[in-house]
Design brief:
- By secondary structure, this protein is an alpha/beta fold.
- It folds into two domains: 104 residues, Glutaredoxin (3-Layer(aba) Sandwich); 101 residues, Glutaredoxin.
- It is built from nine helices and eleven strands.
- The strands form three sheets. It has a five-stranded mixed beta sheet, with helices on one face. The chain has a four-stranded mixed beta sheet with strand order 9-6-10-11. A two-stranded antiparallel ribbon has the order 7-8.
- It is elongated and about 60 Å long.
- About 8% of the residues have low confidence.
- One of its GO terms (cellular component) is cytosol.
Length: 235
């Protein structure tokens, strides 16, 4: 465990939001990692070194799978991923274990005396295709939701998940011998954003049974533990 005051392991969303909102002029490094990803071993050392070298830097370590809401709010699809932000502005997004790029980025914003806020704004998700109305998009999403008795909206393919949450979801369904089809939300941004509104659920994966949304990964895990799973998925 680090003893650096500016290097903090995030235990929950409220503390994460509180730390970021304390000083909107401060440069923050948000580091998403997992214990099973080998590149994170080296990046852990890099992030700790940067926190030590730049006392004014706020470095927040977020365990991507444990803090699913935070990960999904920033569209984290792989680890390690580092975000450099100031206030509500995204200054840089560095995916993979590129220690050189991360070090140069931090030096760019903290290596000089300038404190002016960069004129940068977070990237926005692409708008739905102009040829597809909201009504058509919703109809298409419902068609996908009804393509089989159980549909998993996930990142990637069942045999090649693109995030740990999707990997866990596939393993859970296979463990319970559930026959299911899937939809890769990374292949269609309109569906990805539309489902969040349609099902009133901001994260993925999402589980659909008989055309109805039943919950995200945490909800379905609880169903398994409580014994409700079979009634919902096989009932």
């Amino acid at each position: 465990m680090s003893t650096l005051e500016n290097l903090i392991n995030i235990p929950d969303t409220p503390q994460f939001q509180e730390l970021l909102s304390k000083d909107l002029k401060r440069i923050s490094l948000i580091y998403f990692w997992t214990s099973w990803a080998e590149p994170c071993v080296q990046m852990n050392k890099v992030v700790e070194g940067l926190a030590k070298a730049y006392p004014k830097l706020l470095a927040l370590r977020v365990e991507a799978e444990e803090q699913a809401d935070i990960s999904d709010s920033f569209d984290i699809n792989s680890v390690p991923t580092c975000l450099v932000i100031q206030g509500h502005a995204l200054l840089a997004r560095i995916e993979g274990g590129d220690a050189t790029q991360l070090t140069e980025t931090i030096a760019k914003y903290l290596g000089s005396k300038s404190s002016a806020a960069p004129q940068s704004t977070p990237s926005q998700p692409p708008a739905p295709p102009s040829s597809e109305s909201q009504e058509q998009l919703e109809a298409r999403m419902r068609d996908i939701m009804n393509q089989s008795a159980v549909v998993l909206f996930m990142k990637g393919e069942p045999d090649a998940p693109r995030c740990g949450f999707s990997r866990t979801a596939v393993a859970l369904l296979r463990e319970k011998n559930v026959t299911f089809t899937h939809f890769d939300i990374l292949s269609d941004e309109s569906v990805r954003q539309g489902l969040k509104a349609l099902n009133d659920w901001p994260t993925f994966p999402q589980f659909i049974v008989k055309g109805e949304f039943v919950g995200g990964l945490d909800v379905v895990k609880e169903m398994k533990e409580s014994g409700e799973f079979d009634d919902v998925f096989f009932g």
